[in-house]
Amino acid sequence: YRDGGESGGKMNPFAEQEAWEEHQIGKATLKFGSKNKKQNADNYEYVFEDQIDFIKASVMDGDELKDEMLMEAEEDSKPKSALEKLQEERKTLPIYPYREELLSAVRDHQVLIIVGETGSGKTTQIPQYLHEAGYTKVGMIGCTQPRRVAAMSVSARVSQELGVKLGHEVGYSIRFEDCTSEKTVLKYMTDGMLLREFLGEPDLASYSVIMVDEAHERTLSTDILFGLVKDVARFRPDLKLLISSATLDAEKFSDYFDSAPIFKIPGRRYPVEIHYTTAPEADYLDAAIVTALQIHVREPPGDVLIFLTGQEEIETAEEIMKQRTRGLGTKIAELIICPIYANLPTDLQAKIFEPTPEGARKVVLATNIAETSLTIHGIKYVIDPGFVKMKSYNPRTGMESLLVTPISKASANQRAGRSGRTGPGKCYRLYTAYNYQQDLEDNTVPEVQRTNLANVVLSLKSLGIHDLLNFDFMDPPPSEALLKALELLYALGALNKLGELTKVGRRMAEFPLDPMLSKMIVASEKYKCSEEVITIAAMLSIGNSIFYRPKDKQVHADTARMRFHEGNVGDHIALLKIYNDWKSCDYGSMWCFENYVQVRSMKRARDIRDQLEGLLERVEIEATSSLNDLEAIKKSITAGFFPHTGKLQKNGSYRTIKHSQTVYLHPSSGLAQMEPQPRWVVYHELVLTTKEYMRQVTELIPGWLVEIAPHYYQTKDVEDTSTKKMPRGKGHSAAS
Ligand code: CDP
Ligand code: MG
Q1: What ligand has the least distance to the C-alpha of 216?
Q2: Nearest-CA neighbor of 230 among 373, 108, 101, 113?
Q3: In whole angstroms, what is the distance from residue 71 CA to residue 84 CA?
Q4: What is the pLDDT of residues 234-244, one digit of tens each?
């Protein structure tokens, strides 16, 4: 990068600058003109004070299909309809020449493993080919995706290609959102939704083809689907089963599916230059931003894709990039920043697919979703910090948390490949070549081996699958994790001592929620507050995107937020108050605006709540309200979340009651401001950032635990020892 000046005034975006102007791009200083000898109006030099040094390591091999690139460039000049254009585009996809071969392979084999590079057309084209070949005359074609965003965006694309309205012939189904109709024959859905469909239709009778797509992602639901569809295929010879994946590790899938044939779609990939940093980066977010800005001012046109770990990080990065480029105005080319993550509202998601205007550069800030599930046009540069946010599960304590973890080599290569789709690309890895070789695992551990299995066990039990230890897993979960799940379901009352589903369990399984949330709802029947509890469940389900906090109005936003916490009611009740307040203002946008609440999130909560209300009816729980009886509401919460409880320690931290783990109140919790701190709390989830934090927390009375979960807590667990001497904690106090 420190390769001195460049000549050629035409290419130089700063050519009109007078010598010796300095601009701040955050900490990086750009010096134009130069102090050095070869000063010349057209010569300039960048000095990045915190620039990242990369070394070029190797060039990934791949077919150079330059002539095809040229062919694509020689576009016909006569105007065409959008639909015609799309139809032509379809024919340029790598899968197109194999259409007939693929169709005959599907005809000849019941199960087929399909492998092809990301972007070759598996997801969008295969269901269409099968539709054109008549498979939809006898049933739907279902195509599963590990991610909601992918299911939505891909179905939108396919409906465009077919020239039909989304939700008609082509639709999608994701949790809490069913965009399909009677007409739907191509159905894109999350793998979790197909799993739920099994509950209502164990033979998948309405489908003629099931395509388990992105199989390499090995999500928990995908892995369970493997076992289920394999079984269905045995007694439904008419059902076609396609397992598609972007990686070459297809033998494993083939072995699992009784040696099913593998259909390989030859890839089209341009060479990708890999650059590694010369030393590890302490702050990968900052390094990623600096690298992106370096690319922006130094490299030829082409869009940039940065892999980050989650929404918060993406928002931070967006903010910083905007700050650093602000004020530079026309001195640098326009930089369009596009975030993409699962919770991003649909209309904003569409932005990443819009073509970049001439002269501008797009920077896509994405979670792992862009690794294989989405194809973004025009990406030429990939920045890979080497991390991903992953669920991790401790089977000993039964605790689950989201952890930022290093990616695998397989992931790193997928990420790099994203830059070489439409021409030669470059990938900047923010780690060293040594890190890559020595520290990264070859493959990502399948989710089934690192997650809480309670949800899946409950679903399988409701499907009548009892012998879980002998379920046909491609990679079995640790048996402790299975036992932990059984234990939890037993504690929640979903299973009896023999491991059989109880009435409570049957009701819980109807809700597309984690078992603890479902239990909280089922328990609300007893406490006569189901109306309030489904509101809380809906609000918890939208995640933490309820409030916004504009930079210039932070104080106002915080005041508005704290108003819902008055009386230290706890975060759950605060969520209820937010919803009910909004409702009493006719679900208005103005109310949201005044309270710094995101309208979209609230609408989503309302949607989810409506569905939960329908499910209440289905499991015959009466809709009852006891708005003023906060104790009843808190007891329902406790009935679902009693395994998630903590007790205050002298130093202000909490210790979880069953497993003695040290945890803290999340700063966003209303209770974080409470003086004195609540002694006993029940929490919704743990998140690990700098510390293990409890998020969405409510105070509880320890006696409730023995009353509600006598099989789980004994009086000695919940004795309030704070007035007695404490053997530990004192000397450990942060304050002392
Ligand atoms: O599934 P696979 O990665 O093999 O490819 P795909 O998702 O079917 O994408 C094939 C092509 O469809 C991409 O190269 C894009 O040109 C286009 N596509 C799009 O424009 N917008 C989408 N939302 C999805 C795909
Ligand atoms: Mg795909």
Answers
A1: 2
A2: 113
A3: 18
A4: 999 999 999 99
How far CA 532 is from CA of 376, 456, 628, 633, 708, in Å, comes to 42, 27, 10, 7, 19
| Range name among 141-145, 265-269, 375-379, 575-579 with the lowest pLDDT average | 265-269
**Residue 425: CB partners within 8 Å, gap ≥ 6?**
270, 271, 272, 273, 302, 379, 380, 381, 382, 416, 418, 419
- 417 in ligand 1 pocket by Cβ < 6 Å? no
Residues 611-628: pLDDT tens digits? 999 999 999 999 999 888
Which helix (H) or strand (E) segment holds residue 127: the answer is helix 122-132
What are the C-alpha distances in Å from 372 to residues 77, 117, 379, 700? Answer: 33, 9, 13, 44
State if residue 94 touches ligand 1 by the CB under 6 angstroms criterion: no
Q: Whose alpha carbon is nearest atom 6 of ligand 1?
A: 121
What is the spatial distance between Cα 278 and Cα 56, in angstroms, rounded to a whole number?
10
Tokens for 651, please give them.
């130093």
Distance spanning both ends of the chain, measured CA to CA: 50
Question: pLDDT, tens digit, for every residue of 297-326?
Answer: 899 999 999 999 988 899 999 999 998 888
Q: Who's near 180: CB < 8 A, 6+ residues apart?
A: 167, 171, 172, 173, 187
CA distances to 247, 248, 367, 414, 418 from 216, rounded to whole Å, are 7, 9, 17, 11, 16
Joined tokens for residue 51: 């620039």
> What does pTM read for this prediction?
0.80
Cα 93 to averaged position of ligand 1 atoms, centre (Å): 9
**Any atom of ligand 1 within 6 Å of the Cβ of 663:** no
Q: Whose CA is closest to atom 21 on ligand 1? A: 157
Ligand 1 in reach of 159 Cβ (< 6 A): no
Nearest ligand 1 atom to the CA of 124 is: 8
